[in-house]
Design a protein that fits this description.
Number of strands: 15
Helix content: 40-55%
Strand content: 15-25%
Number of helices: 13
Order of helices and strands: EEEHEHHEHEEHEEEHEHEEEHHEHHHH
Bound molecules: 5'-O-(N-(L-cysteinyl)-sulfamoyl)adenosine, zinc ion
Length: 413
């Protein structure tokens, strides 16, 4: 699939710090790219949208968080190999299309295009490969067939399942108890009660054709469509290789999605780990509930844009909270971000101000420390406050502040 156009990223003086990120499996903040050669690219996979509705602020917050990771790596002199998928065939998409009478393909194409526009407006760096599940079906069929041949998958009627017993590392990504896994599996698209499975937690790799559902030729798998976790597992490994640097998404994907994606890949490759870091964003909520398409409590990026809200203010509003913390969206956040954006713009158009090099050092240190955007924003706030009171007469400061905001926070002043 086509991704979207890349915004320019100005280069900054000196070199940025090495990125440390939280890893869910070890529950620690650890340095990324340890053990990789200095010239090797950082390899990141971020789970993409299921395009049955427009991108809401929760999605945007997740993609913005990993956009900052991308920018920190670039600043540290790394190339970044970034891959993202589009789940353009899955139950929720078909359910929505059935409800509204839309053609499922037209719905997916329309919402994916809107997502591209939102990401472009928010100045999010695009993935190098943007891969749809549908276009990837032939490769997924090969992998599922291979798993079956090697006894790493089994049939239940016309469906194929993955036995968690085939993955020695199963459970280590989330660290959840079996009880928690069973609860989350039932809530998040799993089928713990399906008769004929060896273990309630075994997950679907291939779903045989059902009447009225789209299906593809799976060769020895018969007609059907792929399961969700194998989609990301195969797309990630094909493009990035086993042991890639960061597997990312929202915390709602910790289990079952990322646990099973890792299990599929590790069983197939007979090798661990799938990824060096599993990094997850907190959930953006509204009115005390996770913002989610199924709950309908959504604030859409596109609606805000249509209402004339500046994308850079949306960006600042979301980056004003730490990515790992579940947080509520309240109307006040947008107003505060608009005020901050105006203050930064006014201060950085004075043509002078306090030396900006210490600000650069501070922003770099904050962001490299598990993407502390709150601290980074505070450093620029402080500089802007000094300009207001007439401190400093450094002629290059304004331009450097604009470059810092742009290159590291993606905020064009
Ligand atoms: N297509 C799958 C991933 S393969 C999927 O989860 N799609 S999604 O459209 O539901 O979500 C897209 C991304 O946004 C995922 O990384 C998800 O974890 C994240 N996300 C969803 N809701 C929220 C929320 N309320 N706050 C923060 N991130 C969210
Ligand atoms: Zn995924």
């Amino acid at each position: 699939m086509r991704a979207w156009l890349s915004p320019d990223v100005p280069s900054l003086p000196g070199t940025g710090n090495s990125l440390h990120l939280h890893d869910t499996s070890s529950n620690t903040v650890r340095e990324t790219l340890l053990g990789t050669e200095p010239g090797a690219p950082a390899r990141m996979y971020v789970c993409g949208i299921t395009p049955y509705d427009a991108a809401h602020l929760g999605h945007a917050a997740t993609y913005l968080a990993f956009d900052i990771a991308y920018r920190v790596w670039l600043d540290a002199g790394r190339e970044v190999h970034y891959v993202q998928n589009v789940t353009d065939i899955d139950d929720p998409l078909l359910e929505r299309a059935n409800q509204t009478g839309d053609d499922w393909q037209a719905l997916a194409e329309r919402e994916t295009e809107l997502f591209r526009k939102d990401m472009t407006a928010l100045r999010v760096l695009p993935p190098r490969e943007y891969v749809g599940a549908v276009e990837y079906i032939p490769r997924i069929v090969e992998v599922v067939s291979d798993l079956l041949r090697r006894g790493l998958a089994y049939w239940v009627d016309t469906d194929v399942y993955f036995p968690i017993s085939a993955a020695p590392g199963f459970g280590s990504e989330s660290g959840y108890s079996r009880e928690t896994m069973l609860t989350l599996f039932a809530e998040r698209g799993g089928d713990p009660r399906r008769a004929g499975k060896r273990d309630p937690l075994d997950s679907l790799l291939w779903r045989g054709e059902r009447e009225g559902e789209p299906h593809w030729d799976g060769g020895e798998l018969g007609q059907g469509r792929p399961g969700w976790h194998i989609e990301c597992s195969v797309i990630a490994i094909d493009h990035l290789g086993m042991g890639f640097d960061v597997q990312a998404g929202g915390s709602d994907l910790i289990f079952p999605h990322h646990e099973h994606s890792a299990a599929h890949a590790e069983a197939q490759a007979r090798m661990r780990p799938f990824a060096q870091h599993y990094t997850h964003t907190g959930m953006i909520g509204l009115d005390g509930e996770k913002m989610s398409k199924s709950r309908g409590n959504l604030v859409f990026v596109s609606k805000l844009r249509q209402a004339g809200v500046e994308p850079m203010a949306i960006r600042l509003a979301l980056l004003a909270g730490h990515y790992r913390i579940d947080r509520e969206w309240t109307g006040g956040r947008m107003g505060a971000a608009e005020t901050r954006l105006a203050r930064w713009r006014a201060a950085s158009s004075q043509g002078t101000g306090p030396d900006a090099l210490p600000v650069l050092a501070k922003v770099r240190a904050c962001l490299a420390n598990d993407l502390d955007t709150v601290g980074a924003i505070a450093a620029i706030d402080e500089w802007a406050e000094h300009v207001v009171i007439g401190d400093g007469d450094n002629p290059g400061a304004s331009a450097l502040i604009r470059d810092i905001a742009d290159a590291l926070l993606g905020v064009k002043l």
